[in-house]
Amino acid sequence: MPRSVANRLRGDHAAGGPDVELEHVTALMESCIDEQVRAHAAHDHPAFADADRRFHTLLVRSSCGSILIDVYEGLRDRQMRMNFGAIVGMAGRPELILTEHRALVANLRARDAQAAVAGLTQHLDGTRRAVTRGAGRHRSSR
């Protein structure tokens, strides 16, 4: 997810939207979390990664203008590969993702943009590190 999403959250865009809109978006985000829980229990990594992509797409859609949404959705395949790389073979990573997603939804519902940005930044940094470590293991195993 682009850093500009975090910047938009700093401006309270998603966390500061109308109550009905915020409730709708966070309910959809929770539905994605529920799908991730089911996928994790079934060891269905592609379904987990797809629900993760939809979770983040909801956040982007609620926080950004249409041009960024088009760019973000155009990166779908790349994001799916990254999501999958951040999940597979990393003990405890799916549980951490679920914890971070739940915290992000709670912070949005509480309209705590500062906590939402901090949590999102930590989540994205952790995913980047997980993907980087996974790519390094993949290259060294060839």
Automatic annotation (TrEMBL):
Pfam families for this protein: FCD (PF07729)
Gene3D superfamilies: GntR ligand-binding domain-like
Alphabetically ordered keywords of this record: DNA-binding, Transcription, Transcription regulation
Transmembrane annotation, as ranges: none
InterPro entries: GntR_C, TF_FadR/GntR_C
Domain GntR C-terminal: 26-125
Name under which the protein is recorded: FCD domain-containing protein
Organism: Pseudonocardia nematodicida
